[in-house]
Write a structure and sequence with these properties.
Strand content of chain A: under 5%
CATH topology of the largest domain in chain B: MetI-like fold
Oligomer: heterodimer
CATH architecture of chain A: Orthogonal Bundle
Structural class of chain A: mainly alpha
CATH superfamily of the largest domain in chain B: MetI-like
CATH class of chain A: Mainly Alpha
Number of helices of chain B: 14
Shape of chain B: flat
Order of helices and strands of chain B: HHHHHHHHHHHHHH
Low-confidence stretches of chain A: none
CATH superfamily of chain A: MetI-like
Largest sheet of chain B: none
Shape of chain A: elongated
Number of domains of chain A: 1
Structural class of chain B: mainly alpha
Number of strands of chain B: 0
């Protein structure tokens, strides 16, 4: 049973992507122990050093940036920022969206119409534009980015939760518990939520990669996490000015972003296929 | 058809009004809009003066109605920094973004569709497997990184193309290619799925059984029938291209609406930011509507279902 679950969830061709994801998670969790240097400590003698340079006993494995900070340490701490923002914003938007979607589907009527109209409206603004204008209003920073992403993305969950809840409403066990006088919140928690969690998890896995991308994009535009906090998008943005002299500043954080998003997307597709096949 | 059209039009109008209200109140709820527009060192007197000048000292509802009626007349107010109507600035930048998005769309369609059809028809060909890998990679590449990679290769190392700006016609190539990658991958994927779906149908087997070569079945029958999902995706992808332009224009210093937005945020020129986002939303709503209408034209089942 357990073995077949593992071989279904992680067939051999996908194990490399699980491994990549696991590496990023471990690196993010244990950044202070893994990073060789303090990501913010500057060294004016060690500015823009190529990968493998040695300056006064410090080895810059993947080079240093324009302030002589160790790029490897910054990229390692960047994984922390990236994954933290992604997970927090997915949790935030998932909780809000799923709750509102279930409420809209369960009670329908005016409440349902208002919620689902709001979903349509928020979804009609291109997500990156909505995120940009909200950050412009609220100001940049890590906490604000999480709030903005949660605010921008909750309708995705609401739409799925709404559709799924509507489908469940006519099932005998839901009608029976209503007839027996169970209160709405109880039915939602007890009967609706456990039955829609699969499709919601599919949205979660597909959204995580997008959130990593959005955080990096906002930080690249200078609207996300603020310096000196290391974020892949922000490091890339500063590396842009040194493309001719120090290509490594832009290459390595971008490579991390690409492999992380690729792994999450491949695994997300797989989870979706599995859930769809089961239905 | 009439009922369906009316319903979808009404939905689109509600969405436009809703987005306008959303953006207006978002800005009002999160604090004093005047503070967004002045430098951090501004004195209280100059803040008060600007507030009176811009009419922010009146009731929120008066401001909202005035703002709504302005938007309906395409009057987005004055730029605070440049002191000219926002619409003029947008009109001067819009052609660049349109040119960029059009270039990207041509590339994405020109490469993505044939690739998708090939990957479906020659499903087990080694090139198809390679193509699927490229599609996956294309969907995971952040544009701000692929753009820098292309600059590094074609501008810095090879010196073939300009790295930024819009001075020469060839300046369009790198930004358009960067912007097109994600859309290209999406088209290839959608086209592949659509063609695979059609190929499994009975009429294809019948046509093959009576001796029609595969190539002819594909060009005569399959392509037309698999166009539906591609058409509907195309409209949505145009919206994605326009919003993706924000980042690509920043990477390549391409003087379109995206760069304008980022510059206006830095300059605290809020009316411009607001107008661009609003326009983006309206275009995306219009494209969605167009996609639905096109879709219902091609597939009558949707039309009937929607009108019910």
């Amino acid at each position: 049973m357990a073995a077949s679950f593992i071989s279904r969830m992680a067939p051999p061709r996908l194990r490399i992507f699980y491994a990549i994801l696991a590496i990023f998670v471990v690196v993010a969790l244990f950044a202070p122990w893994i990073a060789p240097e303090n990501p913010n400590s500057q060294n004016l003698l060690g500015r823009l050093k190529p990968p493998g340079s040695d300056v006064r006993g410090i080895t810059y494995w993947i080079g240093s940036d324009e302030l002589g900070r160790d790029l490897l340490s910054r990229v390692i701490y960047g994984a922390r920022v990236s994954l933290m923002v992604a997970v927090l914003s997915v949790v935030g938007s998932g909780l809000v969206g799923t709750s509102l979607g279930m409420i809209a589907g369960y009670y329908r009527g005016v409440t349902g119409t208002v919620i689902m109209r709001l979903v349509d409206i928020v979804l009609s603004v291109p997500a990156i534009l909505l995120a940009i204008i909200t950050v412009a209003i609220m100001g940049p920073g890590l906490v604000n980015v999480v709030i903005v992403l949660a605010f921008t993305r909750w309708p995705r969950y609401a739409r799925v939760a709404y559709g799924q809840t509507l489908g469940l409403m006519s099932l005998p066990y839901v009608r029976l518990s209503q007839t027996m006088g169970a209160a709405g919140p109880w039915v939602i928690r007890r009967h609706i939520l456990p039955n829609i969690i699969g499709p919601i998890m599919v949205v979660v896995t597909l959204e995580i990669g997008l959130m990593v991308l959005f955080e990096a994009g906002l930080s690249f535009l200078g609207l996300g996490v603020q310096p000196p906090t290391p974020s892949w998008g922000a490091i890339l943005s500063s590396g842009r000015n040194y493309m001719t002299t120090a290509w490594w500043i832009a290459i390595f954080p971008g490579l991390c972003l690409f492999t992380l998003i690729l792994s999450v997307n491949v695994l997300g597709d797989h989870v979706r296929d599995m859930v769809e096949k089961r239905r | 058809m009439g009922a369906f059209l009316a319903k979808r039009l009404a939905q689109a109008v509600i969405s436009v009004l809703g987005v306008t209200a959303l953006i207006f109140f978002l800005q009002r709820l999160t604090g004093d809009p005047v503070l967004l527009m002045v430098p951090e060192t501004a004195t209280q007197e100059s803040i008060d003066a600007l507030r009176t000048k811009l009419g922010f000292d009146r009731s929120v509802w008066v401001q909202f109605l005035e703002y709504m009626s302005g938007v309906l007349r395409l009057d987005f107010g004055q730029s605070i920094v440049q002191n000219v109507p926002v619409l003029d600035i947008i009109q001067s930048r819009l052609p660049y973004t349109l040119r960029l998005a059009a270039g990207a769309l041509v590339l994405a369609l020109g490469v993505g569709l044939p690739l998708g059809v090939f990957m479906a028809v020659k499903r087990n060909h080694i090139l198809s497997k390679l193509g699927m890998g490229l599609v996956l990679a294309g969907q995971s590449l952040p544009t701000f990184w692929s753009g820098l990679l292309l600059i590094l290769l074609f501008a810095v190392t090879l010196g073939w193309l300009p790295a930024s700006g819009a001075r020469e016609p060839s300046s369009l190539l790198l930004p358009a290619l960067t912007l097109s990658l994600l859309t290209m991958a999406t088209f290839a994927r959608v086209a592949r799925t659509a063609v695979l779906d059609e190929l499994s149908k009975l009429y294809v087997r019948a046509a093959r059984a009576k001796g029609l070569p595969l190539g002819r079945v594909v060009t005569r029958h399959v392509l037309r029938n698999s166009a539906i999902p591609v058409i509907s995706i195309a409209a949505l992808e145009i919206a994605n291209l326009l919003s993706g332009a924000v980042i690509v224009e920043t990477v390549f210093a391409w003087p379109g609406l995206g760069l304008l937005t980022v510059q206006s945020i830095a300059a605290r020129d809020f009316p411009i930011v607001q107008a661009v986002v609003l326009l983006g939303a309206m275009v995306s709503i219009a494209l969605n509507l167009a996609a639905d209408l096109l879709y219902s034209q091609v597939d009558p089942r949707i039309r009937l279902d929607g009108a019910r």
